[in-house]
Design brief:
The protein is an all-alpha fold and 469 residues long. It has 18 helices and no strands. Helix 1 (2-17) packs antiparallel against helix 4 (64-97), helix 6 (146-178) packs antiparallel against helix 8 and helix 11 packs antiparallel against helix 13. The chain is globular and about 75 Å long. Its cofactor is heme b.
Length: 469
């Protein structure tokens, strides 16, 4: 699903650059999936487009054959979006309805499914902004609102990142639980080292910075700001345009100019491009600072997993690629293939930043709890004696139960779906605490990777017996 989202995002860039987003002037989620099938249908669609401001102001000489090319681009974009949405929503509803995933994962799946539906609405909301009659006024340029375009782009990025984050979380949890207990314990101990906390915060901040930079690129695309100042690093006679051009009263909508600053930041193409340059330069500098930190700080180098070190190099590589694509896109007056690659590069850089983070972030508390219990570590608020008694009680109950639950292979389950199937929950009262309502007892993992699960009533009875003794 993440791959499909990446491709549809890149295709969206092509649609915008070819001015195809306004070629379909209606939003029909069901019947719109069927394209024109004969000449009469094509003439009807073309007639609707002729009534749009874009045709009247910019494309009045367009022929029917030329219209077909931009129509097909927008139609494929919309159909692809519906396919991606259904491919995620239908399985998600099935897994949630049949309770094949945990409560937390159910909430995540439903959240992503809702966001996909909202994304479709944002797409039409964006297109609708380019069909208003006020765009026919002198001095206006028929195009979609840069605000709505950026909102549409941002929602797509959030959808993709939510899928990516959950996928990485499941894969990491499964890998940790499938590894030998000693290896899993040492990995978890290394990730818990206080020295990695600052690094994790730095990667989180870097991810946010990359995202904000990408969204500023959405404003650049929405305003066609890449078609001015096609040079680098200068903008005219200096590194920045004149102040009078950056904060032009033309963009203010109030008599007292109280909105002068923020409207210029978001609507003035010169200042929007400068903002994007500054954010991109800041992001690149932050990435290089992170690389230098991981390379020359002996204390951090000794703590970082080998996979995380490789991840830093990957982020640096994508950063250099993205900077090169951005400068070339500007110098060559925004050719479609370069602009599309530049947007794809932003998503690739953000993806690799998340991958880097996943290699140092701590797994979920439930996965940590399972790992510690496999190696016999205390899990009840640091009470080793109570934990040992509970393990002994769980073992005895599992051995004496008339119909014990069947063992489940760790290797065949994802981390997020493994925990609810094992019946393991997290206590809310303390660090790693066990609550009677949420947690089932279970035995340590056998060498073959199996785990016996004790039925809840038996476990609670044993637990009450331990407390009374």
């Amino acid at each position: 699903m993440s791959v499909c989202f990446r491709r549809i995002l890149r295709w969206t860039t092509n649609v915008i650059l070819f001015s195809g987003s306004l070629s379909i002037t209606e939003w029909r989620p069901v019947t719109g999936s069927v394209p024109p099938r004969n000449q009469a249908d094509w003439e009807a669609e073309f007639e609707k487009y002729r009534a749009s401001p874009e045709f009247k102001v910019l494309n009045s000489r367009m022929t029917l054959e030329e219209f077909k090319s931009i129509y097909w681009m927008e139609w494929i974009h919309r159909l692809w979006g519906r396919f991606v949405g259904l491919s995620f929503v239908v399985p998600a509803v099935y897994f949630v309805a049949t309770k094949r995933v945990s409560r937390s994962m159910s909430a995540r799946l439903l959240g992503i499914a809702s966001l996909i539906g909202f994304q479709g609405f944002l797409g039409w909301w964006m297109v609708k902004s380019g069909l208003k009659d006020d765009l026919l006024a002198p001095g206006s340029t028929p195009r979609v609102s840069q605000y709505r375009l950026t909102a549409h782009l941002g929602a797509a990025f959030v959808c993709y990142l939510a899928m990516l984050w959950n996928g990485l979380d499941i894969l990491r949890g499964n890998k940790l639980l499938s590894s030998p207990p000693a290896t899993a314990s040492s990995t978890l101990a290394a990730l818990r080292h206080p020295g990695l906390r600052t690094f994790r915060l730095a990667v989180t901040a870097l991810s946010a910075l990359v995202f904000v930079t990408a969204m500023s690129g959405g404003l650049v695309a929405g305003l066609d700001a890449g078609l001015i100042y096609n040079e680098f690093p200068y903008m005219g006679n200096g590194l920045t345009p004149p102040k009078s051009e950056l904060f032009d009263p033309f963009y203010s909508h109030t008599p007292d100019h109280s909105d002068l600053v923020w409207r210029n930041f978001l609507e003035n193409p010169s200042l929007v491009q400068l903002d994007h340059r500054i954010l991109a330069t800041t992001t690149f500098s932050a990435i290089m600072a992170l690389w230098a930190w991981t390379r020359y700080s002996k204390s951090l180098t000794s703590l970082l997993p080998r996979a995380a070190k490789r991840g830093v190099h990957g982020v640096v590589g994508f950063a250099f690629l993205q900077v090169t694509l951005g400068i070339c896109t500007l110098l060559y007056l925004v050719p479609t293939h370069l602009a599309s690659s530049h947007q794809a590069g932003a998503l690739a850089l953000l993806t690799w930043t998340f991958v880097l983070g996943s290699r140092t972030w701590l797994p979920s508390r439930a996965v940590q709890k399972l790992v510690m219990e496999r190696v016999g570590a205390p899990t009840l608020g640091g009470n080793a004696a109570a934990a040992a008694k509970l393990r002994d009680a769980a073992t005895a109950s599992a051995a004496s139960a008339a119909t014990p639950m069947s063992a489940t292979s760790l290797a065949s389950l994802g981390g997020a779906t493994l925990l609810p199937l094992l019946g393991l929950g997290l206590g809310r009262g303390g660090s790693g605490g066990v609550t009677n309502k949420e947690t089932l007892g279970h035995e340590d993992v056998a060498p073959a990777g199996k785990m016996l699960v004790v039925q809840k009533d038996q476990f609670l009875a044993r637990q009450r017996g331990i407390k009374s003794s």
